[in-house]
């Protein structure tokens, strides 16, 4: 009997598909049943070849060898996962296999994972595509009943290849040119450089901001009403003529407030739209301080492992009309604590009703992130997973409620020759905000406006008190990961010149990068020390500022990057040939290299030490890595590096923060940011003396596990000391 190979992206998804398809026989890198063989990638098994594959001259970085523009980029099997590639290849090439189902993630990158494997295997068998938005058993069964012809996704594949090749040509040429020209480890990229430029622009706006002082005047009446002085021309409550407010205070001390107008307007606020990935990452960063990368990782687990949320890498906030039939079961899956009271209030889904969140035109590859028909077990989710799951469920349930309604009353009055106003708000229908009654942090009122006492036009209210206040205008806030994601999605404000056509382009493309790549871009900027986090705020480093000074201006423009994203979208829709775009990228890479070669600028390291490199004699640089400090040669061609300190799991006896260990051998010393210092020998002695205060097995196990993971540096003396404690 002929069989079908199903290629999943990850082992966990492959196991789910295998179970649903009845593939119970475990093989070496695959599951097999009567009709199907399910195998898997491990993310990418095949990738674009490194520069050295195109000639020995590229093994060393030399400016004169640039630009590197191979006629055709080669694919290579990744060494670290080659065993699984050959397992996949063996199954695809079996004589009893008649066709192949691509079941990798339903997106541009998932398409690339599968197609590159197929290209490297050189298999010519018929292809079908499994396109699903959740990995519940039901979704998998329905997906296999509606398999699509893989040729429908050829444009998506070509778009993915174009994106990868563009990043190769632009990124590698730009990075090698910068690094060799300025003798520093510098990198640039199609998306990362304009993202860095947006952070730099915000920094510039903050530094150039000049605060302007202002005053305000509050008028309190004996009826308990508080009015604000308003400029009749500008309608601004702020008085920028310093000294005017105290004068008014004296002038109006014996005046009365006369009501001149009362306006009450009924306002409606509909429920917020469903989450797309960027919006959810922003909310998660704002509420919980999670990074964009961390939020995406949590979502992937909720999607793949727990199967309680749909596919996360989406840029849509809507659902398609064919999903209406599934809404009842999704709501039923949410009928768990703490949502039961809310679910009970949602009436039967009216299939004829036109819901505002159903819009086929605004759903491309994937709909919004919503719950699946499957409920999580009470103890299945971690604290972080539970927080993200609850955000999604609340947003999903909220859209079934009516709008939040309130009456907004504005009372205008005169005092002397001036004007004052008071505003109040009275809720008339709670609507969708019932979902957030127990969660004040989610949807607070834009302004706290109390309800007002009843008054009538012409009524006169004696003044009880006049209060002068003062303040000054504030600079723009620093970008956080959440607000940076929003800026990447809508970067119109970061264009240097106002251009309506470019702004329109940015609007069409959804900004720079994609929902799937933005988190990685931010992470890369942090890891390469171009930006740094201080609390939640992102700051550009001196290295980042210098890099922007060295990179050609047009590579910093979000407009150019957005135009490229638009062309990638056209390739996906079959409206642009991939080779045309790649040709343009090659020319652009050539222009970047020439501009860098002609540059007369210099790069100044701000982290030079006084220690010479033992290999080449140039002064070493001190850099912060994720796990401590290291010294590296400033010449990338030399490559010398040495760890000088390591963040350990040992805790400071004074402030309980993690200690860093410096030095080598017997001279190793612990140091803490609070100022505490302690030799390793003293630390070990103190540990012995405090044996009655036993370290928990969990603490020791975690310490040993983390320390063994560090391949480049291992503090064996400390590990031995803790290992002895573990045995006791």
TrEMBL record:
It comes from the Bacteria. Residues 187-192 are annotated as: Interaction with DNA. GO terms for molecular function: DNA binding; DNA topoisomerase type I (single strand cut, ATP-independent) activity; magnesium ion binding. This is DNA topoisomerase 3. Pfam families: Topoisom_bac (PF01131), Toprim (PF01751). It catalyses: ATP-independent breakage of single-stranded DNA, followed by passage and rejoining. Releases the supercoiling and torsional tension of DNA, which is introduced during the DNA replication and transcription, by transiently cleaving and rejoining one strand of the DNA duplex. Introduces a single-strand break via transesterification at a target site in duplex DNA. The scissile phosphodiester is attacked by the catalytic tyrosine of the enzyme, resulting in the formation of a DNA-(5'-phosphotyrosyl)-enzyme intermediate and the expulsion of a 3'-OH DNA strand. The free DNA strand then undergoes passage around the unbroken strand, thus removing DNA supercoils. Mg(2+) binds at residues 9, 105. InterPro entries: Topo_IA, Topo_IA_2, Topo_IA_AS, Topo_IA_cen, Topo_IA_cen_sub1, Topo_IA_cen_sub2, Topo_IA_cen_sub3, Topo_IA_core_domain. NCBIfam families: PRK07726.1, topB. The record marks 61, 168, 176, 313 as: Interaction with DNA. Residues 153-593 form the Topo IA-type catalytic domain. Keywords: DNA-binding, Isomerase, Magnesium, Metal-binding, Topoisomerase. SUPFAM superfamilies: Prokaryotic type I DNA topoisomerase. Its EC number is 5.6.2.1. The active site is at residue 311. Residues 3-136 form the Toprim domain. It comes from Halalkalibacter akibai (strain ATCC 43226 / DSM 21942 / CIP 109018 / JCM 9157 / 1139) (Bacillus akibai). GO terms for biological process: DNA recombination; DNA repair; DNA topological change. PANTHER family: DNA TOPOISOMERASE 3-ALPHA, PROKARYOTIC DNA TOPOISOMERASE. Belongs to the type IA topoisomerase family. PROSITE patterns: TOPO_IA_1, TOPO_IA_2, TOPRIM. Its cofactor is Mg(2+). GO terms for cellular component: cytoplasmic replication fork.
């Amino acid at each position: 009997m002929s069989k079908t190979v199903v290629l999943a992206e990850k082992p966990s998804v492959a196991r789910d598909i295998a179970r649903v398809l009845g593939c119970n026989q475990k093989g070496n890198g695959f599951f097999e049943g009567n009709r199907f063989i399910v195998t898997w990638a491990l993310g990418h098994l095949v990738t674009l070849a490194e520069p050295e594959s195109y000639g020995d001259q590229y093994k060393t970085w030399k400016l004169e060898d640039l630009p590197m523009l191979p006629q055709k980029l080669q694919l290579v099997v990744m060494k670290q996962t080659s065993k699984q590639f050959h397992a996949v290849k063996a199954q695809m090439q079996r004589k009893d296999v008649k066709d192949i189902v691509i079941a990798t993630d339903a997106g541009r990158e998932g398409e690339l994972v599968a197609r590159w494997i197929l290209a490297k295997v050189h298999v010519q068998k018929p292809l079908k595509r499994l396109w699903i938005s959740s990995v519940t058993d039901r979704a998998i069964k329905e997906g296999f009943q509606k398999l699509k012809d893989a040729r429908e996704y050829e444009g998506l594949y070509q778009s993915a290849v174009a994106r990868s090749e563009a990043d190769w040509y632009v990124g590698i040429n730009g990075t090698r040119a910068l690094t060799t020209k300025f003798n520093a480890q510098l990198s640039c990229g199609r998306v990362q450089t304009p993202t860095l430029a947006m952070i730099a622009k915000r920094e510039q706006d903050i530094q150039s901001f000049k605060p302007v002082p202002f005053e305000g005047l509050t008028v309190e009446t004996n009826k308990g009403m508080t009015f604000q002085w308003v400029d009749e021309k500008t309608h601004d409550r702020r008085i920028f003529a310093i000294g005017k407010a105290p004068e008014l205070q004296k002038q109006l001390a014996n005046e009365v407030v006369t009501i001149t107008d009362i306006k009450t307007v009924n306002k409606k606020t509909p429920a917020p739209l469903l989450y797309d990935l960027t919006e959810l990452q922003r909310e998660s960063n704002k509420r919980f301080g999670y990074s964009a990368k961390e939020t995406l990782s949590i979502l992937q687990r909720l999607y793949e492992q727990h199967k309680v949320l749909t596919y996360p890498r989406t840029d849509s906030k809507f659902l398609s009309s064919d999903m209406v039939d599934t809404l009842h079961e999704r709501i039923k899956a949410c009928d768990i604590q703490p949502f039961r009271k809310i679910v009970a209030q949602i009436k039967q889904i009216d299939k004829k009703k036109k819901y505002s969140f159903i819009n086929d035109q605004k759903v491309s590859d994937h709909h919004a992130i919503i719950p699946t028909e499957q409920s999580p077990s009470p103890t299945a989710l971690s604290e972080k997973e539970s927080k993200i799951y609850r955000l999604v469920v609340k947003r999903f349930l909220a859209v079934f409620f009516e709008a939040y309604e309130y009456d907004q009353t504005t009372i205008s009055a005169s005092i002397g020759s001036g004007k004052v106003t008071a505003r109040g708000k009275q809720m008339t229908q709670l609507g969708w905000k019932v979902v957030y009654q127990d969660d004040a942090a989610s949807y607070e009122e834009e302004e706290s406006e109390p309800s007002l006492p009843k008054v009538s036009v012409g009524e006169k209210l004696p003044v009880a008190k006049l209060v002068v206040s003062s303040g000054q205008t504030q600079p723009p806030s620093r970008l956080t990961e959440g607000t940076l994601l929003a800026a990447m999605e809508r970067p119109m404000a970061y264009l240097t010149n106002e251009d309506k056509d470019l702004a329109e382009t940015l609007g069409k493309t959804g900004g720079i990068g994609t929902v799937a790549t933005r988190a990685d871009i931010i992470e890369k900027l942090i890891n390469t020390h171009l930006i740094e986090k201080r609390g939640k705020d992102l700051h550009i480093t001196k290295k980042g500022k210098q890099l922007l000074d060295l990179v050609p201006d047009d590579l910093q423009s979000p407009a150019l990057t957005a135009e490229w994203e638009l062309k990638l979208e056209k390739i996906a829709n079959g409206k642009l040939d991939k080779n045309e775009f790649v040709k343009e990228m090659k020319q652009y890479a050539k222009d970047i290299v020439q501009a860098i070669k002609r540059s007369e600028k210099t790069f100044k390291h701000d982290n030079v030490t006084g220690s010479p490199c033992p290999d080449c004699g140039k002064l070493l640089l001190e850099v912060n890595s994720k796990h401590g400090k290291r010294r590296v040669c400033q010449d990338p061609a030399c490559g010398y590096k040495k760890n000088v300190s390591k963040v350990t799991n040992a805790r400071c006896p004074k402030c309980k923060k993690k200690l860093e260990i410096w030095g080598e051998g017997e001279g190793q010393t612990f140091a803490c940011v609070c100022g505490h210092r302690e030799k390793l020998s003293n630390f070990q002695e103190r540990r012995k003396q405090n044996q009655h205060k036993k370290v928990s097995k969990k603490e020791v196990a975690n310490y040993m596990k983390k320390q063994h993971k560090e391949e480049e540096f291992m503090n064996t003396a400390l590990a031995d000391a803790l290992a002895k404690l573990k045995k006791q």
